[in-house]
Structure formats: C-alpha cells, structure tokens
Backbone:
C-alpha cells in the first residue's frame, strides 16, 4: 500500500515538475529530502535512544508492572469474555501499560501474545468482539508522554515544545472513549450476524 | 498550565531513575541496554524514513502540493481545516514514518508554534498507525475476518483529526 503511494508520489511529482518547469527545484528536492532525513535522525533519533534507555529502567525496576496492575479492573470491565487475573488479562494489561509509557517495543510482543490468547475463543478465523476491541484500542494512541513528538518540536526550534501535552491528552482520551463506544456499537449490531 | 508540559519529561526521568535506584537495579547498565535497543530501532526505521523524506521533499518541491491544496481549499475553508494538514491527515493512519516525515515538513514550513504546527503535533500524538497495528495483530493471530476493527480504527482516526482542530482552537 505505502509502496504504491511512494512510487506514485515520486512519479507524479517529477511529471508535474516537467510540465510546469519546476525541474530544478525537484532535483534539489531529492538532495534536500535526503539530508533532511539524516538531520532528523541525528536530532530526533538521539532523543529516541535516550528515551528507550529511560524506559528500559522503568521496565526493569518494576514500575511498568505496577501500572499494569492498576489497569486490571478496567480491563475486566471492557472485555466481556476476559476473566480477572487470567493470562489474557495480564497480557492486555502489559500491552496497555507499555503503550501508555511509550514502550512500543515492549507493547507489540505482549499485544501479539494477548491477541493469540484471545483468538483461542474465535471460530473459523472470525475475530471475536474482544479481539476487535483490543485491536481498536491499540489503534488509538494511549501514550502519556509523546517523546518523539516533543523531540521533533525541540529540534524545529519550538519556544515551548511541551505546550501541546494537555491538548494531546484531551484528544487522546476522547478518541479512545469514542473508539471503544463505536466498537461496542458495531459488536452489538454484529451479534445477530455472526452468532447465528 | 503550559508548565505541565515543560516539567513532564524531566519529572518522568527523575521518577523512573529514582525508582530504579531505590529498587536496587543497576540503573546505569540497564539504561545502556535500553540505549542499544534504541539505536537498533532508529536503525530499523531509517530506510523507510529516508525514502519518505525524499518523497515528501520532492512532492513539495514540484509544486504539486500547492496545486492540490489549491484545488481542495474551498472544501478545507468550509470545514475550517488548514489545507497544509490534509496530506498529513490522510497519511497518518497508513504510515508512521510517512507521517513523521510530513510532520517534520509542516514544522519547517509553518513553524512548530503556528496553529497548523500545533494541530499537526496533536494529530501526530493522539492516534496510531491504524493499518499497521491491524495488520500486525490480526496477521499474528491468523484472523481471516477482522469484522468491524478497521472501520472503527479509521473512524476513530477521523474523530481524532476533527477533535485535534477543535481542541487546538479552543486551547491556544
């Protein structure tokens, strides 16, 4: 999908530039993009490395496990077929708490394990309500401190890189609530269709 | 209120390092392990970032962006949607690296502290790459029929784009 978009952007841009006589800017654009990316990686990538270091400390010291314990009641409230203290409940809690801290490297493996556990209850490869909900929750961001974004803002000379945090929290929270509600609504509608 | 944002990163680092020290783990060596993982993940995303930065840069240099923005500006004006954000909003659910490249481009051309820059920031941070997440999770669990998952994920993305603009206009 992205591969096709990429090819078309390059082809269309070159074609448009030929037609409008912008070809000099385009040839500069290739180099500007390449060096822009290297610059980006040096500045923002450096911060990503720092943050991963800090987050591994949070993981190894047991701080992120503490967070996942707090999530237990919420998970059994949202996922109707997941029992308290079960394997899948723990995996889902690990996934969500890792996402909240921005540990995407730790969130993906536990998320995949959780999905495999949840899929044991599915039939014929049809996703269950809980699987859909879990995927939808993961597509909405729950990150408390968007570290990469803040680093990007700093590197682009923002006067106050952290000013976006409160709007980010508001929007993330509303989106998460919206996503859960829409998913529950679709599940209800689908019940007749899939469970006959 | 703005102070919260400034304090957040140092405070989180302070709490995490402090907690690790109290718990008696070797904070320095764990930090280094994390950094080497970090280097690997930056290394891992570099090729796709590189490809997409070039595409964004060429796309902009060709003048095609202005042309498309110009075509869509009546629609954007009607919706009070900054036209520069449209490509970003469309790419956000599809590609993480692509939206990083576009956000970086928006920050350069409009500034981080402009309305457009702030909206792009909030959009960037308040959703995930929906298609990627769905592909990874359902691929790993060998699910053939994902039912309403993708629909809900994309609806949530649309909702978050709209909310980003509303909340940014209200907050700033």
Residues:
């Amino acid at each position: 999908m992205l591969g096709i978009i990429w090819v078309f952007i390059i082809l269309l841009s070159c074609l448009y530039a030929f037609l409008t006589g912008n070809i000099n800017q385009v040839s500069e654009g290739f180099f500007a993009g390449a060096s822009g990316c290297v610059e980006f990686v040096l500045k923002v990538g450096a911060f990503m490395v720092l943050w991963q270091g800090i987050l591994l400390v949070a993981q190894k010291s047991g701080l992120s496990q503490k967070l996942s314990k707090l999530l237990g009641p919420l998970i059994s409230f949202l996922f109707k077929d997941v029992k308290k203290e079960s394997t899948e409940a723990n995996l889902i809690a690990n996934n969500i708490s890792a996402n909240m801290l921005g540990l995407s490297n730790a969130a993906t493996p536990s998320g995949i394990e959780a999905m495999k556990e949840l899929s044991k209850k599915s039939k014929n490869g049809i996703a269950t309500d809980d699987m859909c909900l879990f995927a939808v929750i993961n597509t909405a961001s729950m990150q408390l401190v968007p570290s990469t974004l803040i680093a990007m803002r700093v590197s682009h000379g923002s006067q106050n890189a952290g000013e976006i945090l409160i709007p980010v929290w508001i929007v993330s929270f509303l989106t998460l609530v919206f996503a859960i509600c829409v998913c529950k609504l679709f599940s209800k509608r689908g019940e007749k269709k899939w469970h006959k | 209120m703005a102070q919260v944002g400034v304090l957040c990163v140092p405070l989180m680092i302070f709490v995490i390092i402090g907690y690790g020290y109290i718990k008696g783990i070797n904070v320095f060596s764990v930090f280094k392990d994390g950094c080497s993982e970090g280097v690997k993940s930056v290394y891992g995303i570099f090729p796709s970032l590189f490809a997409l930065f070039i595409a964004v840069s060429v796309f902009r240099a060709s003048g095609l962006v202005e042309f498309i923005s110009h075509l869509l500006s009546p629609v954007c004006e009607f919706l009070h949607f900054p036209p520069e954000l449209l490509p970003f909003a469309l790419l956000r659910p599809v590609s993480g690296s692509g939206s990083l490249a576009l956000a970086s481009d928006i920050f350069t051309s409009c500034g981080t502290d402009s309305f457009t820059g702030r909206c792009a920031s909030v959009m960037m941070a308040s959703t995930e790459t929906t298609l990627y997440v769905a592909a990874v999770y359902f691929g790993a669990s060998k699910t053939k029929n994902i039912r309403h998952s993708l629909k809900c994920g994309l609806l949530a993305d649309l909702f978050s784009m709209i909310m980003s603009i509303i909340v940014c206009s209200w907050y700033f």
About this structure: The helical segments of chain B are 2-22, 27-61, 64-79, 85-91, 96-110, 115-126, 130-140, 149-171. The longest helix of chain B spans residues 27-61.
